């Protein structure tokens, strides 16, 4: 009976674990759909502003601080990972790609979005200068604005010369690819895949001036891109967690089925032993009489 009770307790524990993994699967599914809907809303804006920036870069030959190619290149990296674990190899993959890119820089400045990105890089021996929590789990525009303001201030103060963001880009539920995109300085080659709305030679007039327009446009472009990157990362994180929790729930179902078979066999054996003991005791009593 001890074995039967032990199996019963094991079944109860696995059943409770299954309830947790199934609930996390359903929650991740909901959060993934929400992140994809945000991506859809932001896609049109980002496409328009990137096309506008490309149009300016193609038709205007003027200098600006956001366009200059500085000789002393100190690179800043914004690494976007998750705040929580239990999402398969998602965090390890993004950290591996980030470390590979960071190691190519002589004096990198590292910023992280997500607790796992910060702890993973610090455990690997890197110094994280600034971090943001919550932005990868539930991105909002104000998260992107805070990150952009920090990056632009450092860039204008000549603390950094290039800015990159490393995140996982969502293509479909079966395809997610880690990307490392340059945000500053702006270069025409970074917009090679962007289609222009009006691809005709012309002169562009700026009001009040080219410099003032770019001072406003470039940070807004960065906010839009970083917000899109956060939503892509959120969708990919929840897909990874959804797959991990679905696999865990499936394994729990298989374990419960096996434990039920073991429980039935043990219970049947216990009943058989009881019948055997009763029959043996009855036979001994008859012989004693």
Written description of the protein model:
By secondary structure, the chain is of the alpha/beta class. Helices cover 61% and strands 13% of the residues. The protein has helices at 2-59, 90-102, 115-123, 141-156, 210-288; strands at residues 75-80, 109-113, 128-132, 162-172, 175-184. It has a five-stranded mixed β-sheet, sandwiched between helices. Strand 1, helix 2 (90-102) and strand 2 form a beta-alpha-beta unit. The longest helix is centred in the C-terminal third of the chain and has 79 residues, at 210-288.
Supply the key terms.
289 residues, 5 helices, alpha/beta, five-stranded mixed β-sheet
Content of β-strand: 5-15%
Largest sheet: 5 strands, mixed
Strand order in the largest sheet? 3-2-1-4-5
Count of separate DSSP helical elements = 5
Instruction: Specify Rg, calculated over alpha carbons.
Output: 29 Å
Cα distance spanning the termini: 32 Å
Average predicted local confidence, pLDDT: 86
The count of strands amounts to: 5
Assign the structural class, choosing from mainly alpha, mainly beta, alpha/beta, alpha+beta, or little secondary structure. Answer: alpha/beta
Poorly predicted runs are: none
Helix-strand pattern, N to C? HEHEHEHEEH
Helix content: 55-70%
Shape: elongated
Quaternary state of the chains: single chain
